[in-house]
Give the backbone structure.
Amino acid sequence: MTNNSIPTTYIPLEKFHIVPLTGLSPAELKISAKRTSRDREKITHTTKLNAIAKRLGITGGFAAYEKEYNGSLLPFMVKHNLRKRKNLLKHTKDGDYNLYFPFSHQQVSERLFFFEGPTPKKLFTGHDFDFSGPISWHSQDLYDALNEDSDWSDIILGNYHIKRAIDDNFDISHLSDRQQYLLKLDVTTEITVRLLDQTGLPN
């Protein structure tokens, strides 16, 4: 990744200051503090660094952030071989029909830090996953699949997947165990509806 392609994230401070972040190392944060734009009150460089550390969730000022970065974040990056920045939310093999949409950074953040349940150990973002094979079906693929799999055929032809999506009380207990399992899969699909021009057709 070249310097020109490094994404910039902007975080606001309390007194109308906007900080451009291009990295999380103490050295990068010091550069960001120097590039902070302001609308009103001028604040010192040290005050900006302490405010940035606070916005990043670290109490105790910038010195505490440096300690946390060097003592926790850096070892974590070394352990998991995180040597350079990469956009892990971008789908590199979309397939033809884009049935699965990428997460935003905000969605990932909220799932990790603002979710009432347990913190996930893994998060599937779709990066480097080939969606063109198992998910991007066109009409012929779907036709073949329905002929080969009676459970999928029953679900699609019976509109069970749609009924389950729009009716929380839809009872699937009468279906086979495998059909119930297939319906519970968290799969995002996109249905294309073609509107035919019926002008001039007999009533």
Notes: Residues 61-79 form the longest helix (19 residues). The two ends are 62 Å apart (CA to CA). Confidence is low (pLDDT under 50) at residues 188-203.
